[in-house]
Design brief:
This protein is α/β, with parallel strands linked by helices. It contains eleven helices and eleven strands. The chain has helices at about 5-15, 30-40, 50-60, 75-90, 100-110, 150-165, 190-200, 215-220, 220-225, 245-260, 285-300, and strands at about 20-25, 45-50, 70, 95, 125-130, 135-140, 175, 210, 240-245, 265-270, 275. The strands form two sheets. It has a six-stranded mixed sheet with strand order 8-7-9-6-5-10, sandwiched between helices. The protein has a five-stranded parallel sheet with strand order 3-2-1-4-11, sandwiched between helices.
């Protein structure tokens, strides 16, 4: 079971080397990340985009990209379509956003002819290694689905459980969090959380344990669970997956962790045929490398 990103990296290097296809790779942070990923034996890459611009950026950063396959496509939209088709056709295992706006990138993911769409809901998963926490923590959805209804939450859970399984967590504990840990009909998040719990108990959601509603402290901190007398619950401060009721609570928590706590993290878009790496330009170098490693682990599991 992976408890740190070093564990994930060890898991990656024991698998066959995966290939990453990058849409519009003429970006300094992306070039730096894919170079590091290859040097660490995490993944090889195909760089799609303006070849002259990629080579200029790499030279300015004193990074050698001569051993990468480069496909020269100067138009960003066409570069994305070319890059995603490589993954669709099985010539690459993962798809990564480069210097292209998110809307256009997602349009290529959802392209009916060459994209990676499935019948599943697309959702975003962030994996955190937090200092003092002896497990990886999976947060969802913090960036993609604004206001998920109950059916969508079921799909988000299923998407995230697949990622946790790929990381070696056989039966992850899922905590649908809310402001309180009791059902209040005036607080829809608590009602949905209780329904998700029952669906899991009835075998309608499998591969995990669900216990909700839970406040974040009861889901994350064993000491808080102890002091609040929650020992009889299925989750007592040991949740693996935190399911947020909406994008606001998820995004605020994500950014608070990134900017206020000693953490490592990686992000992945799920519900697609192959792993999709959707990082922000504000994400640091290690986050991009960790996201590639996470995608490689998931690609191995999908294989």
């Amino acid at each position: 079971m992976s408890k740190t990103f070093d564990d994930l990296l060890s898991k990656v290097t024991s698998c066959s080397l995966k290939k990453l296809s990058v849409a519009n790779a003429a970006d300094d942070a992306v070039i730096e990340a894919v170079r590091a990923a290859k040097d660490r034996n995490i993944a090889d890459a195909v760089l799609v985009g303006n070849e002259a611009e990629m080579k200029r950026i790499a030279a300015d950063m004193n990074i050698d990209i001569s051993d990468f396959e480069i496909i020269n496509v100067e138009d960003p939209i066409e570069a994305a379509r070319t890059a995603v088709k490589l993954v669709h056709d099985g010539q690459a295992d993962m798809y990564m956003k480069g210097l292209i706006d998110t809307k256009s990138f997602l349009k290529s993911v959802l392209d009916k002819e060459v994209g990676l769409r499935t019948e599943k809901t697309l959702s975003h998963v962030c994996v955190f290694e937090i200092e003092g926490c002896e497990r990886l923590l999976f947060l969802t959805d913090v960036a993609f689905v604004p206001y998920p209804d109950l059916d969508t939450k079921v799909q988000i859970v299923e998407n995230t459980v697949e990622i946790a399984h790929a990381c070696g967590i056989a039966c992850p504990k899922v905590a649908p969090v809310a402001a309180v840990e009791v059902v209040n009909p005036k607080m829809p998040a608590t009602v949905d959380a209780a329904e998700l719990t029952k669906m899991c108990e009835d075998g309608k959601i499998t591969g995990c344990i669900i216990d909700g509603p839970l406040s974040f402290d009861l889901a994350y901190d064993p000491e808080a669970a102890k002091h609040k007398g929650a020992e009889g619950r299925k989750i007592v401060g040991d949740a693996d997956i935190i399911l947020f009721p909406d994008i606001h609570s998820g995004n605020i928590t994500y950014k608070a962790l990134v900017h206020c706590a000693p953490v490592k993290n990686g992000n992945i878009l799920t519900g697609t045929k192959k792993p999709v790496i959707l990082t922000s330009r504000s994400d640091d170098f290690e986050t991009k490398v960790n996201s590639i490693a996470l995608a490689a682990v998931v690609a191995e599991e999908l294989k």
